[in-house]
Design a protein that fits this description.
With 308 residues, the chain is α/β, with parallel strands linked by helices. Helix content is 37%, strand content 16%. The protein has two domains: 119 residues, no CATH class; 141 residues, Isopropylmalate Dehydrogenase (3-Layer(aba) Sandwich).
Length: 308
């Protein structure tokens, strides 16, 4: 509700779910189609109703709702792919509850959305006004990263990112910085050779095709203000290499988005926070940023298609 009030009418959105799950003091209006969200007052939440199995208890994970949560995500994707809405902004989910309650077969939102979009590979980007980062490997143990990094996978990550910056951010000539895996980007092989044997050949190939790519660069000198001014996105080799900088720069306002889908998807860059659910103290900053970014990406994508 706070997000709706702060956004006003400049970012029209609606919520899909069971109105019984909203706080008791919530002001909401039931709608039957997305277009009706435009006419709802700024302090009223438009709700496209989806009846869940039962009411919810704030802060309590309920496996009986798992199938309904999964269905609501699919419903949102269907509305976007049919043109009834412009983008999907997902709230955090509890993956264990979905697995326990409905046999959810995906590691998380991203993989499920890729399945719904019928694409084989997508890219997770974290973005805030001062930085965009993409981890080439995501939720795997650090010890598994060297084996998980492949030339094919790194190339696909960079290509999807490059295309996404053009289509969804309106950057006609994206500047891409790529981090090395090892300290000091391997220091010429003294601290590891994956920069020489794997990363550099991929970057050279893509540079030869016209992409503006720098690297592999030492990760410890990539994220101060002057360095960030030289690129539009940083491709990192593993999860924390990407997420520590952006969460340090803008912990509350970061946005998680998925590139490579046939539709736009953003999400707040945080988890479910069951420990503060129902207490009225949650920070809506990231959700607001995710909604605004979804709108901006939709506008960029419309502009891009208009130029095709």
């Amino acid at each position: 509700m706070k997000a709706r009030t702060l956004l006003g009418h400049d970012v029209p959105f609606f919520w899909i779910g069971d109105a019984r799950h909203l706080p008791s003091a919530s002001k909401f209006a039931l709608i039957t189609n997305p277009a009706q969200a435009h006419g709802i007052a700024a302090d009223v939440l438009p709700v496209l109703a989806y009846d869940f199995f039962s009411t919810a208890t704030p802060g309590i994970a309920q496996a009986t709702h798992a199938a309904d949560v999964i269905a609501v995500i699919a419903r949102a994707v269907d509305l976007v792919t049919t043109g009834a809405a412009s983008a999907v902004c997902t709230s955090p989910i509890n993956k264990k509850v979905l697995k326990d309650g409905a046999g959810f077969a995906f590691p998380g939102h991203t993989e499920y959305l890729a399945s719904l979009g019928r694409v084989d590979q997508v890219v997770m980007m974290l973005a805030c006004p001062d930085l965009r980062v993409v981890p080439a490997t995501i939720h795997i143990p650090l010890a598994d990263v060297p084996n998980a990094l492949t030339a094919k996978g790194l190339e696909a990550t960079i290509r999807i990112t490059h295309a996404g910056l053009i289509r969804d951010f309106g950057l006609l000539a994206p500047r891409i910085a790529v981090a090395g895996l090892n300290p000091h980007a391997g220091e010429g092989g003294a601290m590891g050779d994956m920069e020489i044997t794997l990363i550099t050949p991929v970057l050279d190939q893509l540079r030869a095709q016209g992409m503006d790519i720098s690297g592999p660069l030492p990760a410890d000198t990539m994220f101060h203000a002057a360095a960030r001014a030289r690129y539009d996105v940083a491709i990192c080799m593993y999860h924390d290499q990407a997420l520590i900088p952006i969460k340090t720069i803008d912990f509350a306002g970061g946005v998680n988005l998925t590139l490579g889908l046939p539709f736009i998807r953003t999400s707040p860059d945080h988890g479910t926070a069951f420990d503060i659910a129902g207490r009225g103290i949650a920070d809506a900053t990231s959700l607001i940023a995710a909604l605004r970014m979804a709108q901006d990406m939709a506008a960029a994508r419309r502009g891009h298609h208009g130029c095709d």
